[in-house]
Amino acid sequence: MPVTSDLVATYRNPRRVARRLIGLGPREDRALVILIAACVLVYVAQWPRLAREAHFTGQELNPMLGGALLAWIFFAPLILYALALISHWVLRVLGGRGSAFGARIALFWAFLAASPLILLRGLVAGFIGPGPGLQAVDLLWVLIFLWFWVSGLIEAGWSKA
Description:
7 helices; 84% helix; mainly alpha
């Protein structure tokens, strides 16, 4: 199934999509591509906010974009891999029998599936700026992301992939 169809299906039934992705078998290349795609989208979502900040503060935009690139393309994947491992350990303590790969897919897919809201957040941060609108989008993103992640962890914790 194409990624866009999976994204739409995740908003309807995140457990079914997570079950299917985990059921495809442990392929680290697939997990890495999902993670990098999500990080690239988050990086792109930073552009309007950084352009606004550069305009209002008089800073140079290129170093700000470079710093965001470094953070989201190089450091964030390492942090997310560590977070996925910790979530796997928590599942094991709670009696889950799934693999670390399943926990990685659950986290990485939740991050990618919630990316449309991250892009919306970038637009709100860039064009409207701080305020209740941005806070509402942040809250919505966090709730959707957690829903997707917990749904994926439920599938990952009790599957053998």
